[in-house]
Design goal:
Oligomer: heterodimer
Shape of chain A: globular
CATH architecture of the largest domain in chain B: Orthogonal Bundle
CATH topology of the largest domain in chain B: MetI-like fold
Largest sheet of chain B: none
CATH class of the largest domain in chain B: Mainly Alpha
Number of domains of chain B: 2
Order of helices and strands of chain B: HHHHHHHHHHH
Largest sheet of chain A: 6 strands, mixed
Number of helices of chain A: 10
Strand content of chain A: 25-35%
CATH superfamily of chain A: P-loop containing nucleotide triphosphate hydrolases
Distance between the termini of chain A: 27 Å
Structural class of chain A: alpha/beta
Number of domains of chain A: 1
Structural class of chain B: mainly alpha
CATH superfamily of the largest domain in chain B: MetI-like
Radius of gyration of chain B: 23 Å
Number of helices of chain B: 11
Strand order of the largest sheet of chain A: 6-7-8-3-9-10
Largest interface: A-B, 35 and 30 residues
CATH architecture of chain A: 3-Layer(aba) Sandwich
């Protein structure tokens, strides 16, 4: 890879109880590119992503070993404050989870946690982030309304804006378009391509066409193992492994 | 669908319908008999005066002491139980989420405590009072009733918090908020309507229970002016009037029951209105 890696994963193994879920994962995620983790359902892509911001801590019986290095620090075994660590990474999940408050407060929540901004500055920032995800025009007249009244597609964009508002370096997206209609999906995809000049984006998906549209780098996973990885061109045009070839042909999902 | 399945479906539907009718009928009967016997005996005097000499023989006076006493006692106990119970429930659902087995053990014991009869709490409280040399008082009653409703409060809030999907927890944590910020600013907000119901449930148990306060708050004809004084409560007041041989006094017992029912009704309606205000922010998952 030509680019400087932002996240280095070395010999990562993950067990849930006695099940070996992630098997000896070695990969690097380049800075300021869209890296797509591609693979069929149940291959461990979401779990791999949750390791990166330690959300695996929330699930019972999970054991990990190996290293995930972000900014020269192994985050699996860190003395660093986990909240600070998670703040480096915005999360977009399979379906949007807006916070139970107004549209405005959904964005200002993150701002207020991390900094002591003045009210004027917060107002400016809320507007800026809502504009960045192309939601401002739709909600500018109803910022005080609860976020639950937005459509799912709007909610997902709100969640993206909320994630950007804490000023992360990395965006982790776990099939962020799976619950959305085609138009909202398109907006999210376009935003990702736009955002990659400032952020490192890790995008988990099983949708081949989507991967082809946005990926710079591809990590192909199957049954908890990384089968093949490389630039989008290499993987889609010239796959080396048989498993990758048959997945790209659509022989299995 | 086979014929047997159709019959089965019909049979159970009729069974469910009958069970519902039976319960509705029993409830209506209780409410009707309380109102029928109670309403004629209710008077302004009864609501605004403390018992005068001879009240329990059918002479003048009222049950203001018991109304005020019951409100003091149950509001105090519900408040304490809420302050203790909310953090416990939040702790279980956010900090202990990784330890499923431990949570289930805690839930099991809380359910067990929920099932313990209130007279046992009363007896326990009484033993403790003897040990510490405390007399029957409003404070002792509040403490015992608090102990008695905490399992209800915790489990009721816990059941509401359980419905919050883990995705919301993940989202909030990945914004960089700590677990306690997530607990009080996200989970609490999301669950306010359910939490109000939990508080209401606990309040209902607190104000309606006679056995736990029998030994601990005592009974008096005066309105308490401090926490160290004994206090009258509505359920005990009903009990004392109902055991009287004089029909007039017995009817007053029903009137007191009406008062108790109306208090619970008012609190219910108020909290419904209150919780509507917060419902709009709730996310439907």
């Amino acid at each position: 890879m030509n680019n400087k890696p932002k996240i280095k994963i070395q010999n990562l193994n993950l067990y849930i109880g006695r099940h070996h879920i992630l098997k000896n994962i070695n990969t690097e995620i380049p800075e300021k590119k869209v890296t797509v983790i591609l693979g069929p359902s149940g291959c461990g892509k979401t779990t791999l992503m949750k390791c990166m911001n330690r959300l695996t801590d929330l699930y019972p019986e999970i054991k990990t070993n190996g290293k995930i290095i972000i900014d020269n620090e192994n985050i699996l075994n860190t003395k660093q404050n986990i909240s600070k660590l998670r703040q480096k990474m915005g999360l977009l999940s399979q379906r949007p989870y807006p916070l139970p408050m107004s549209i405005y407060n959904n964005i200002s929540y993150g701002l207020k946690i991390n900094n002591k901004w003045k009210k004027k500055e917060i107002e400016k920032k809320v507007e800026q982030y809502l504009k960045q995800v192309a939601l401002w025009d739709e909600v500018k007249n109803r910022l005080k309304e609860p976020a639950s009244r937005l459509s799912i597609g709007q909610q997902q964009r709100l969640c993206l804006a909320r994630g950007l508002a804490v000023d992360p370096e990395i965006i982790l997206a776990d099939e962020p378009t799976s619950a959305l209609d085609p138009i909202s999906s398109q907006v999210i995809e376009e935003k990702f391509v736009e955002l990659k000049k400032d952020y490192t984006i890790v995008h988990v998906t099983h949708i081949l066409r989507q991967a082809k549209r946005i990926a710079d780098y591809v990590v192909f996973m199957y049954m908890g193992e990384v089968i093949e990885q490389g630039t989008a061109n290499e993987i889609f045009e010239n796959p080396k492994k048989n498993k990758t070839k048959s997945y790209l042909k659509g022989l299995f999902y | 669908m086979s014929k047997f399945k159709l019959i089965e479906e019909k049979f159970f539907r009729v069974l469910m319908f009958l069970a519902t009718c039976l319960i509705a009928f029993a409830l209506c009967l209780i409410i009707f008999s309380i109102l029928y016997k109670g309403i004629p005996s209710i008077s302004w005097e009864m609501l605004t005066q403390t018992p005068k000499g001879g009240f329990y023989f059918g002479k003048e006076g009222g049950i203001l002491n018991a109304i005020i006493g019951s409100l003091y006692l149950s509001i105090g106990a519900t408040f304490l139980a809420f302050i203790i119970g909310l953090p416990v429930a939040l702790y279980m659902n956010i900090f202990l989420i990784k330890h499923k087995k431990l949570i289930n053990i805690i839930r099991f014991f809380l359910d067990l405590l929920w099932g313990v009869p209130s007279i046992v709490y009363g007896a326990f409280g009484f033993t403790m009072m003897i040990f510490f040399g405390i007399k029957t008082s409003l404070l002792a009653g509040i403490i015992v009733v608090t102990l008695f409703i905490i399992p209800i409060m915790v489990r009721a809030i816990d059941e509401v918090l359980k419905t919050v999907p883990i995705g919301l927890l993940e989202s909030s944590l990945s914004l960089g908020s700590t677990k306690s910020e997530t607990a009080y600013r996200v989970f609490f907000k999301q669950c306010i309507p359910g939490i109000i119901t939990a508080v209401l449930l606990s309040f209902g148990r607190a104000i309606g229970d006679a056995a736990s306060v029998l030994f601990t708050t005592g009974y008096t004809d005066h309105i308490p002016t401090s926490l160290s004084q004994p206090t009258a409560t509505l359920p005990l007041s009903i009990f004392f009037q109902l055991t009287s041989p004089i029909p007039e006094v017995q009817n007053r017992a029903y009137a007191s029951a009406v008062v108790l029912t109306v208090i619970i009704l008012i609190i219910s309606i108020l909290s419904r209105i209150f919780s509507k205000k917060f419902q709009k922010n709730q996310i439907n998952f």
